[in-house]
Design brief:
Elements (H helix, E strand, L loop, with lengths): L2 H11 L3 H23 L2 H20 L7 H23 L1
Helix pairs in contact: 1-2, 2-3, 2-4, 3-4
């Protein structure tokens, strides 16, 4: 993480939405594609992606995330993907 990202992270931890968006924007498309492969539905993938970044923001502002924000994003994406797969198997 470079110095600019560290400054953005500090601002985002204090609720700075613009800083959070700038930090996470490069990862949103990757997370969306990962979830789309899993659910094969664009709307669901979009909703799940939103869930990922809401949860990341919540954890970030509660100081549950250290300086490794990017690992946190992908860990949460994996957790949400696994929950979705588990839930869809129960429904079908």
């Amino acid at each position: 993480m470079n110095e600019h990202e560290r400054r953005l992270l500090k601002i985002a931890r204090n609720g700075g939405i613009k800083a959070f968006e700038e930090l996470t924007a490069p990862h949103q498309h990757i997370v969306y594609n990962y979830l789309l492969i899993s659910c094969s539905n664009e709307f669901e993938a979009c909703q799940l992606t939103q869930d990922v970044f809401v949860k990341v923001f919540e954890q970030l502002t509660s100081n549950a995330v250290d300086d490794d924000l990017f690992s946190c994003i992908y860990r949460i994406a994996r957790d949400i993907q696994q929950q979705h797969v588990s839930t869809s198997k129960k429904i079908s």
